[in-house]
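Supplementary Text 2. Reproducibility record for the structural model of the 95-residue chain.

All settings were left at their defaults, and a single model was retained for analysis rather than an ensemble. We include the record here because the model underlies the residue-level annotations in Supplementary Table 4.
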Amino acid sequence: MTHQEPLDLGTTELSADEEERIRREHDLDRPEVFDRRNDVDRRARTRANLLPEELGPGSADPEAQAREVLRDSDVRTEVPESAPDTVVERRESGE
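Retained model, structure tokens:
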């Protein structure tokens, strides 16, 4: 399954120029390249087996759901600033 829409960074504090640079650098406007580089199809087939806590609600399309979860995770891993609410704040012990 080929994903044609640009991958979503969500709400960020990036400038338009910085977001454009990041989109280019990480192939976010070319999801098929992003997916191939991150082996999303193979990983989605494996992840499509629902976990025990997911069996209750179920899923209409476990593989598509897994693919989107993996893409989102990969984007947040490659582009940490795409999820400013999840950035770990580091402090020195004296602070």
